[in-house]
Amino acid sequence: MTPTHATARTARTGCTARAAHTVRAARTARVARTSVLALAAFSVLALPVPSAHADEGPGVLQVAAPPVPVDAADPDLKLADGARLGQVKVLDIKSIVETDNGEERHEVTNEDVTFALQSEVLFDKDSADLSRQASARIDVIAREIEAQGAREVRVFGFTDDLGTTGHGEDLSKERADAVQRRLAKQLDSGVKYHIRGYGEDYPIADNGTEAGRKKNRRVEVSFPRGSA
């Protein structure tokens, strides 16, 4: 064999070896990638899957955790040396009771009692003459004024925003006067009255609907709350 032929064979052998090495490296890489993917898939499958559950419906008993024990001797629950409690403050709590048809509302706070009667249960349309059922309604209010021992009573009339402002003010004042006169027949003569006709001012509902206007047409009787 000539040197030229030997050199050529050596070159071919080297190329073959390198090619084989490249093939083995590629195969090894594919195996490695396959192993990684398999491991990842296994990891995903091995993760705990949260169990599905439906929302608890009404009437299902809720199991509450036991309350946290409170140590009465805990220094955090006591005032520091030299500290004093602030001034006692009574919150103004309001209670409102309204009839289903909205004809009457009874409101009580720490300071006052207010009755609001819709005009329809006291007067005919556009009238300041008390209806037959009005007297009985007003007498109930008079008995409450006596029970509270009130010596001052406010009687305010209101209308909706239909018609002129002047007419609404006049009508609301005339209606307030009519209610006051009935109260005066039932109460001691020493009671002092404050009477106002506010017309369409101070609405309590939307004047854009008849239902709202009906609520706004009203007479309110309010007085200080006693110890009763």
Secondary structure: elements and pairs:
Layout: H1 3-46, E1 95-98, E2 104-108, E3 112-118, H2 134-148, E4 152-158, H3 165-186, E5 192-197, H4 210-216, E6 218-224
Parallel strand pairs: 4-5
Antiparallel strand pairs: 1-2, 2-3, 3-6, 4-6
Give a description of the structure.
With about 230 residues, this protein is of the alpha+beta class. It contains four helices and six strands; from the N terminus they run αβββαβαβαβ. The protein has helices spanning about 5-45, 135-150, 165-185, 210-215; strands at about 95-100, 105-110, 110-120, 150-160, 190-195, 220-225. The longest helix is centred in the N-terminal third of the chain and has 44 residues, at about 5-45.
Structural class: alpha+beta
Strand arrangement within the widest β-sheet reads 1-2-3-6-4-5
- Secondary-structure element order, N to C: HEEEHEHEHE
Major sheet characteristics: 6 strands, mixed
Helix content percent band: 25-40%
Count of helical stretches = 4
Shape: elongated
User: N- to C-terminal separation?
Assistant: 133 Å
The oligomerization state is single chain
Count of extended strands: 6
